[in-house]
Amino acid sequence: MEEIRTLIREHVDPKFTHVARNIPYGKQEIDYKDIAAVVEVLQSDFLTQGSRIAEFEKAFAEYIGARYAVAVSNGTAALHLAALALNVNESSNVITTPITFAASANCIRYCGGKVTFADIDPQTATLDINKVRALLEASPRGTYTGIIPVDYAGYPVNLEAFRKLADEYGLWIIEDACHAPGGYFIDSKGEKQFCGNGKLAELAIFSFHPVKHIACGEGGMITTNDPVLYDRLLLLRTHGITKDPEKLQENHGGWYYEMQYLGLNYRLTDFQAALGITQLKKADKGLARRREIARYYAEKFEGTNVDFSVAVNVEGHAYHLFVIKVKNRKQLYDKLRENHIYAQVHYIPVHTLPYYQGLGYQKGQYPLSEAFYEVCLSLPMYPSLTQEDLDFVIQTVLKYA
Ligand SMILES: Cc1ncc(COP(=O)(O)O)c(C=O)c1O
Known about the structure:
Layout: H1 2-11, E1 23-24, H2 32-42, H3 51-64, E2 68-72, H4 75-85, E3 93-96, H5 103-110, E4 114-117, E5 120-121, E6 126-127, H6 129-138, E7 146-148, H7 159-169, E8 172-176, E9 184-186, E10 192-194, E11 203-207, E12 220-224, H8 227-237, E13 241-242, E14 258-259, H9 270-281, H10 283-301, E15 322-325, H11 329-338, E16 341-342, H12 354-358, H13 367-375, E17 376-379, H14 387-400
Parallel strand pairs: 1-16, 3-4, 3-7, 7-8, 8-11
Antiparallel strand pairs: 2-12, 5-6, 9-10, 11-12, 13-14, 15-17
The structure holds pyridoxal-5'-phosphate.
Residues 74-76, 100-101, 103-104, 150, 176, 178-179, 207, 209, 220 line the site of pyridoxal-5'-phosphate.
């Protein structure tokens, strides 16, 4: 193994982590320790269902402050399993935000449920709790089943307030924390509530897509404090199959298993989990750098016509994205691309996507989300963004905004 480590160290050219003047909006950071960890698993007996999964889950649960974590193949699978574990079905009606990746809503559709959107709070571009309350008050009790708030861009949604509302109406919460591992908000007692810590939502989900804080290529995690949901998730992740002698209805011998639910194969591989483990060790450092970049953007955009108010400077922001609002968004986007700066738009409101239009959702239904979409732009934000590139991005934005 030491030989491999040396080989990798020698072959990881520093230039490899910094492609000249191609500046994406988000990017993974892979070093030789990450590569060595993956190679080690590739040389072992188990590429999947080995020991790295449980190790990654334990480390992630500790990092987030939740009791249980279940690793899955991606964030979308995490959302789907979360919905299944909460028994979402044709009679479910779940509230979420239009300003998110489609998967936050799709997970309800996979289970045959109905999605109801509620507009955003324009200050944070996250689900507006007042709009959710208005929906609940305007409908007979029992109309809605759950809420999926999204920690958009890394802004930690106040789940204490959502929990209170959800309890009043008997709803569950899935926190879509894909943008916010390590993020937290300060609750009414002055305590830090880390995104996905299992105290305020039944389930929370994360993604390990390369643009996210922790990169596994593809990968996802579900966290919870509920042992019943945890057991159900473990079963659902592997076809609904168990070999646990205590759970079997019969037992024919060592080979025997039972499929007790209609589950899926949403497993993460061991080499992805190995990468997750080494990535997680750098997570705090990466988060600190993201916050530093955000402060620098804010400092440089202060007093200019670049509106960065949605990248709210709150303690605990995880800054997956640094989102600005500009009137000439398309022109700026194109100019940035000409300069090899690949800014991105997050998000096209989900209800305006053709699939959702086909289900009868109307353009104009959520005007604040639609207005936000017209002007938002996510600037480069990742730990390995160099000072030189950061300055170049800022100069180019100020030149064309
Ligand atoms: C808010 C949000 N939810 C869910 C997902 C889905 O995650 P994945 O791409 O890992 O399936 C993403 C990823 O883009 C996301 O940003």
